[in-house]
From TrEMBL:
Gene Ontology cellular-component annotations: cytosol
GO MF terms held by the record: L-methionine-(R)-S-oxide reductase activity
InterPro entries referenced in this protein's UniProt entry, alphabetically: FRMsr_CS, GAF, GAF-like_dom_sf, Phosphatase_reg/MetRdx
Pfam annotation, one family: GAF_2
Family: Belongs to the free Met sulfoxide reductase family.
Residues in coiled coil: none
Listed PROSITE patterns: UPF0067
Domain of life the protein comes from: Eukaryota
Domain GAF: 118-195
Gene3D superfamilies: 3.30.450.40
Originating organism: Mycena chlorophos
Protein name: GAF domain-containing protein
Amino acid sequence: MPHADSALVPDSIASKTEFWEHVHSQIQALLEPEQRNWVTNLSNAASLVYNSLLAFPSHFGEGERAVNWCGFYLDAPLFPQRRISPESTTQSKPTTSRLLLGPFNGRPACQYINTTPGKARGVCADAFLQRRTVLVEDVEKYPGHIACDGATRSEIVCPLVLDDGNIVGVLDLDCLAVGAFNAEDKAGLEKIAELLVKSCDW
Ligand code: SME
């Protein structure tokens, strides 16, 4: 099967729970045991979730109710750093913690999110710092919500937590409809997050 076809959704899928089980199995099929690079695996996962949602309009609805963004924000130290010359090793450590934009599908989004306790703001920072899925029924009523796209109306952000308890980032989904996400989406995404953290080297 061509890789692109893994984002097709069979007509037999009738509920959100079935949909997420299907997407989970499609991600599992795409992952290869010897390929544990997080850029590679999260890139395909973002594309698969986003395009599967678009291929299953009964999940949210079409057009003005569709998913409009799916992607990852990752803890900044995971990204390749600029080489520090031996002379500058006395440089002090950065005092700001942040998530950087990772693999995603959708329109351009903010490049980083401040997660420094006391200065952090937004749904992604809250999910990251509290290590819990945050489900936002109406983004306009969420204090501190960061509007990367003014058309977004609801959002769900799921943390990526390793077995040892360390957190590496979050998975973020946005929708053009208010109240698009529910407990079935939360359960489905948390299972996908679990699969992805286990399938990559961090
Ligand atoms: N709305 C998010 C920012 C990321 S975008 O939705 C892609 C937030 O409040 O953290």
